[in-house]
Amino acid sequence: MRIIKAHAFGNDFLLLDEGAVPDGADRPALARALCDRHRGLGGDGLILYKSRAESGLRESGPGPVVSMALLNADGSYSEVSGNGVRCLAAWVAEDTGAAIGTSVDVDTDAGRKRLELLERTPDGLVFRAAMGPPEAVTTVRLDVAGEDVEAVTLRVGNPQCVVLGAVTQARLHQVAARLAVHPHFPQGTNVELASVETSGCVRILIWERGVGPTEASGTGACAAAVAAIAYGGADRDVTIVSPGGRQRVEWLEDGLYLTGSAEIIASCQWRRTPVAVPSGNRSR
Length: 284
What we know:
By secondary structure, this protein is an alpha+beta fold. It folds into two domains: 2-131 and 263-281, Diaminopimelate Epimerase, Chain A, domain 1; 135-253, Diaminopimelate Epimerase, Chain A, domain 1, CATH 3.10.310. 19% of the residues lie in helices and 46% in strands. It has an eight-stranded mixed barrel with strand order 1-2-3-4-6-7-8-17. The longest helix is centred in the N-terminal third of the chain and has 15 residues, at 82-96. The model is unreliable at 55-59 (pLDDT under 50).
């Protein structure tokens, strides 16, 4: 199988044409094997994609349309990734020779995301992605190992939990890691620690559901921006700084817009045979 590796500010993904996956393959096991940092290719997630022609999607804009399904590094399901859709759009743009100004539509389980190619830089392709409006934005107080924690919860296509305040590695492992699997979130959640440094700049650390600490997160950046704007006095056009780099989030009347780059790292061949699902355990 041909695997493409890409990253967006260190948040790395493996891209695989779904048509290359053998029938009956255990996809969660495949994701775990591919994403293994020592015995695989290494990645925060596996993206299985289909082109418009393969998936029966109709053209709806000036550029290509693809669909994707995302599995985290531990093989668990995820609805969407802001950095993941950008990595896939970067591959599609490179593969098709897309010109500046071209839009790439990516169909996800959280709806269609349209990404406009803004520029090509030495660090990769820069896109502005329409991520849609945030949903169910609220605050909640939770007990985390005996500590009373106030958090902002919301959905940006996937579940998010943002804690405004101190952004330290200690709190990432003591608080964020526990929130990711807190009983309040039966399906788990992504967690961001966020500090509003100025009205135009928010610093974050991320604990990704199904992955752990990541250098960046597109949906996490969007969630942190919403929390900082709604409850921390940040501007509606804000820079989100994570260990991997800076992304721009705009919260406009029609939703959130995420701007950042993605870089294609490699194309290679995976030589192992995927593990098959036992016939009695197969599901769609």
